[in-house]
Write a structure and sequence with these properties.
Peroxisomal Thiolase, Chain A, domain 1, eight-stranded mixed beta sheet, about 30% helix
């Protein structure tokens, strides 16, 4: 695929509140993954929607807003891709629990939040953004497939794309069915056009897994590996780690089947 440009990054996770803080944490031997993820008080949501939005949606909006605010682009100028390994399993659990009761008291708000594109809907409301939006899921490969979707959309439509990946642990009854053991979210604003404030150049291609060194799809900082292995959205960490350091890097992200995405990154000094 053609080279694209990273214009903004948003990140939130255990011990990580924003990209500026993440740049230090990604290189630290003690990243602080035992700390709680903090949600910002300002998500640009109207009061009613803020009350209705689930925690997963709020985390997604937080990183999306950071990525947009760190760029020269406006939210209504970009398409969006939202990706999550299993969606909002807490909402699914609440609905299923209600269905076991005699009156089956399913909350309209919970039902409203159960659709996989709920995050995209809240983003559109908060930012008055009505461009193309896709919401996908691919289990452990959700970040890689979200990035592939974003790069494809950029190449075909020639529009900037905001990629948002977000996961959190499932509640106890579904804990083992869920794929995430941490709360983590990342957003990347990617453009086909180079601006004066771009952060890095990225070029991604699908290749056969056997042609790629397995070492390039793990974190160089081994302290990050527990988070990467235990949260599908955190599969972005090797790419984020590369973006935190100036210079040229090559990483890969596993995709379904026998393919992976090989990514070349050239980070501005």
């Amino acid at each position: 695929m053609k080279p694209v440009f990273i214009e903004g990054i948003g990140i939130s996770g255990p011990g990580i509140e924003n990209w500026q803080q993440a740049r230090s944490a990604l290189l630290s031997e003690q990243p602080g993954f035992d700390q709680e993820l903090i949600i910002s008080a300002d998500l640009s949501l109207p009061a009613n929607e803020r009350r209705r939005a689930s925690r997963l949606s709020k985390i997604a909006l937080q990183v999306a807003g950071e990525a947009i605010n760190s760029s020269i682009l406006q939210a209504d100028e970009v398409a969006t891709v939202f990706t999550s390994s299993c969606g909002d399993l807490e909402i699914a659990h609440k609905i299923c629990t209600a269905l076991t009761m005699e009156a089956k008291p399913v909350s309209p708000i919970q039902f409203h939040n159960s659709v996989h594109n709920a995050q995209a809907g809240y983003w559109a409301i908060s930012q008055h953004a009505h461009n193309v939006s896709n919401s996908i899921s691919a289990c452990a490969d959700s970040f890689a497939m979200g990035l592939l979707e974003a790069l494809t959309l950029i190449e075909v439509e020639q529009v900037p794309v905001l990629l948002v990946a977000c996961d959190r642990p499932a509640p106890v009854p579904l804990y083992n069915a869920g794929m995430s053991r941490y709360e983590f979210a990342v957003a990347m604003l990617i453009s086909p056009h180079r601006s004066d404030s771009f952060m890095a150049v990225l070029e991604g291609d699908l290749v056969a897994k056997q042609s790629v060194d397995a070492a390039v799809n793990v974190c160089e900082n081994k302290a990050l590996e527990p988070l990467r292995k235990a949260c599908p959205a955190a599969m972005a960490l090797p790419l984020l780690e590369a973006l935190a350091i100036s210079g040229q890097h090559v990483i890969s992200l596993d995709c379904p089947g026998q393919t992976c995405m090989q990514i070349k990154v050239d980070v501005c000094a």
